[in-house]
Write a structure and sequence with these properties.
binds s-citryldethia Coenzyme A, mainly alpha, 18 helices, about 5% strand, three-stranded antiparallel sheet, 6 strands, globular
């Protein structure tokens, strides 16, 4: 047991702050009384050294490349679990019994339909609207249809809103795709698995039966597991901050979707595949690696680097293995995978990437698989949002039910003008 106190000697004062320990990972210095005791704020743009909350959902060890959900390693969950089982684990804290999993899956399945008025909502978009623009709008609009369950102080309301969000994301995402390609929306089929139902709503057509490919279903379900939750990343922190004001869960998840869309975050999977296509052949890799290292060039290797992982992202390991499985099962190949493998190899042997500890992250290989399955690049981040809704909802529930939670309201270091008097326009 290390020190339990941190001492700050500043401006002639000495203040002590409690050091708190969690189950795993870095201790924290509890600075909640810092401003009251010292009149000073901490300063941490980008929150590189800030714990915004305590949470029991997900643990990441960035140095060791470890990712645990409720204590279970991501590699074991990807190998042995299902997305519905991981959803139950994140929401309820334990791996479910077979009966509990059946009940949970049945409940989610029974909420996959959308209010028919929402179909009209889609008609207002241009056909070439980015699916993430539609996802932001459609999920935000859900609160207009569920006034019966937006009292966040009611655990039952929180539960049904959580189930509705997890259940309806595949339907909303599939409809965004259908709308873009001008095909009719497909209604959910409750006889299929969560992921199988999504595949049919996306790639099936009313004119014929759709056969779910079990290998693709398993691969996509595993990809959803890999994207389910990831501690206090930017979009999860957005959901928590929106939720801290008491906003309804649909509005909070819509805020998370908007944040995830950024190319530095969930939008990186779309940007990574576009980058691999732009590179085109292994021969052009050195040119792009040189650009990524050039301080005067804004280009970055998309799908590389991470705020927390300073080792290989364990999700990227599973993703690369899944590429090989899907290619073999579908008997396809894609020269872009070869470009990705050689790019990884060259980058990981380059001092710049080694010194800055830049490794492939979850977004580096995901686009290669999603493209092989048939998704356009514009759908990649929508799929990330579909899967991350489980984590966002679990984190939102954890925050709302924490008695210590308060509205999030950071302060600042003010660098603007000191007070000055108004000058009439004829005197300026
Ligand atoms: C996700 O937080 C999460 O958990 C996110 C996520 C999740 O599951 O929720 O894991 C999902 O968002 C994964 C990350 C996807 N984004 C990308 O792949 C985009 C490319 N990566 C980078 O933009 C960057 O690595 C970030 C945004 C991921 C991390 O940014 P940081 O932690 O703020 O690091 P930084 O931008 O300060 O970079 C540190 C240094 C810089 O060089 P110096 O100024 O120190 O000289 O590394 C360089 C950067 O220029 N660098 C890169 C690079 N990433 C960082 N150089 C080239 N290519 C890159 N990809």
């Amino acid at each position: 047991m290390g020190d339990t106190n941190a001492t700050l000697n500043a401006k002639g004062d000495t203040n002590n702050f409690e050091i708190k320990s969690g189950t795993l990972g870095p201790d924290v210095v509890d600075i909640r009384k810092l401003y009251a005791n010292t009149g000073m704020f901490t300063y941490d743009p980008g929150f590189t050294s800030t714990a915004s909350c305590d949470s029991a959902l997900t643990y990441i060890d960035g140095e060791e490349g470890v990712l645990l959900h409720r204590g279970y390693p991501i590699g074991q969950l990807a190998e042995h679990s299902s997305f519905m089982e991981v959803a139950h684990l994140l929401l309820n804290g334990e791996l479910p019994s077979a009966d509990a999993l059946d009940d949970f899956t049945y409940t989610i399945t029974r909420h996959t339909m959308l209010h028919d008025q929402l179909r009209q909502f889609y008609q207002g978009f241009r056909r070439d609207a980015h699916p993430m623009a539609i996802m932001c709008g459609a999920v935000g609009a859900l609160s207009a249809f569920y006034h019966d369950s937006t009292d966040i102080s009611d655990p039952e309301h929180r539960k049904i809103s959580s189930h509705r969000l997890i259940a309806k994301m595949p339907t909303i995402a599939a409809m965004a795709y259908k709308y873009a390609i001008g095909q009719p929306f497909m209604q959910p089929d409750n006889s299929l698995s969560y992921t199988g139902n999504f595949l049919r709503m996306t790639f099936g057509v009313p004119a014929e039966e759709y056969e779910v490919n079990p290998v693709v279903e398993r691969a996509l379900d595993r990809i959803f597991i890999l994207h389910a939750d990831h501690e206090q990343n930017a979009s999860t922190s957005t959901v928590r901050l929106a939720g801290s004001s008491g906003a309804n869960p649909f509005a909070c998840i819509a805020a998370g979707i908007a944040c995830l869309w950024g190319p530095a975050h969930g939008g990186a999977n779309e940007a990574a595949l576009n980058m691999l296509h732009e590179i085109g052949t292994p021969g052009k890799i050195p040119e792009y690696i040189a650009r990524a290292k050039n301080k005067d060039d804004p280009f970055r290797l998309m799908g590389f680097g991470h705020r927390v992982y300073k080792n290989y992202d364990p999700r990227a390991t599973v993703m690369q293995k899944t590429v090989r499985e899907v290619f073999e099962a579908l008997n396809v190949s894609d020269p872009v995978f070869e470009v990705a493998l050689q790019l990884e190899e060259m980058a990981l042997n380059d001092d710049y990437f080694v010194e800055k500890k830049l490794f492939p992250n979850v977004d580096f290989y995901s686009g290669v698989i999603l493209s092989a399955i048939g998704f356009p690049t514009t759908m990649f981040t929508a799929l990330f949002a579909l899967a991350r809704t489980v984590g966002w909802v679990a984190q939102w529930n954890e925050m709302i039910s924490d008695p210590a939670q308060r509205i999030g309201r950071p302060r600042q270091l003010y660098t603007g003008p000191a007070q000055r008097d108004y000058v009439p326009v004829d005197k300026r």
